[in-house]
UniProtKB/TrEMBL annotation:
The keyword Membrane applies. This is Amino acid ABC transporter ATP-binding protein. It is a peripheral membrane protein. GO terms for molecular function: ATP binding. The lineage of its organism: Bacteria, Pseudomonadati, Pseudomonadota, Gammaproteobacteria, Alteromonadales. Residues 2-239 form the ABC transporter domain. The keyword DNA-binding does not apply. Belongs to the ABC transporter superfamily. Keywords: ATP-binding, Cell membrane, Membrane, Nucleotide-binding, Transport.
């Protein structure tokens, strides 16, 4: 369902992604690990064209796009295929939880407001926030805000949800409730690409782990392969430190 071919990204002279290729099947949970500054966020952002890749092709769902020759309409189509969960939630501060989740349904998918709000409510109930529908982000804990962030990504109806270190900014006490929502999504076979330092989550939930370093995919495989039997020295060193 997702195919990334020969993706590269430069910021000026700095090559951040170097010839990245990988595929993700529908329903697959892929976890990306690696040191900071390695290009993990940039890779996720390129998948959604929040950053424009320098070269390479991206295919997600019914969108196919080439970095060199893409048209504005293709970018719009590609963006509809995925949704983002950010480290810092990035909720609209002046909108309630319900409005935050309904937003994309109304603006992107042109669903009538009543119906969009009903759908948004059902999703917030699912992430355990039925009593916070009309509350603004500033009145929510970090864990609750991130659950709104995930609910918003679920509402966007993309093929894949992209998570960029969704628990890194949270106080430790809120991490588990966010991981629980992600596990539920994984259980329902929501296709996900998750950048995280939560190695236990990766071990338990990932179908596949990708280890990135220095703009390259160094190694990928099942959690067992990557964590218990890494092939490359760089993977061994990282996993040893991380576990
Ligand atoms: P990671 O998520 O693995 O920590 P990033 O993708 O955030 O890594 O960053 C990879 C490299 O790209 C870093 O050296 C970072 O400084 C650089 N970088 C990221 N975004 C930009 C940008 N907008 N402009 C210039 N350099 C950037
Ligand atoms: Mg990052």
């Amino acid at each position: 369902m997702i195919k990334v071919s020969n993706l590269s990204k430069k910021f000026g002279d700095l090559a951040v992604l170097k010839d990245i290729s990988f595929e993700v099947a529908k329903g697959e949970i892929v976890v990306i690990i690696g040191p900071s500054g390695t290009g993990k966020s940039t890779l996720l952002r390129c998948l959604n064209y929040l950053e424009t890749p320098t070269t390479g092709q991206i295919h997600i769902g019914n969108a196919t796009i080439d970095a060199i020759s893409h048209k504005p309409k293709e970018v719009t189509t590609l963006r509809q295929q995925s949704s983002f969960v950010f480290q810092n939630y990035s909720l609209f501060a002046n909108k309630t939880a319900l409005q935050n989740v309904a937003e994309s349904l109304i603006t992107v998918w042109k669903i009538p407001a009543q119906e969009a709000l009903a759908t948004a409510k059902a999703i917030l109930v699912k992430v355990g926030l039925e009593d916070k529908l009309d509350v603004y982000p500033s009145q929510l804990s970090g864990g609750q805000q991130q659950r709104v962030g995930i609910a918003r990504a679920m509402a966007a109806k993309g093929e894949v949800i992209l998570f960029d270190e969704p628990t890194s900014a949270l106080d430790p006490e809120w991490v588990d409730e966010v991981l629980a929502v992600m596990k539920q999504l994984a259980f329902e076979k929501q296709t996900m690409i998750v950048v995280t330092h939560e190695m236990q989550f990766a071990k338990e939930v990932a179908d596949r782990v990708i280890f990135m370093e220095d703009g390259f995919i160094v190694e990928q495989g099942s959690p067992k392969e990557v964590f218990d039997n890494p092939k490359h020295e760089r993977t061994k060193a990282f996993v040893k430190r991380a576990l």
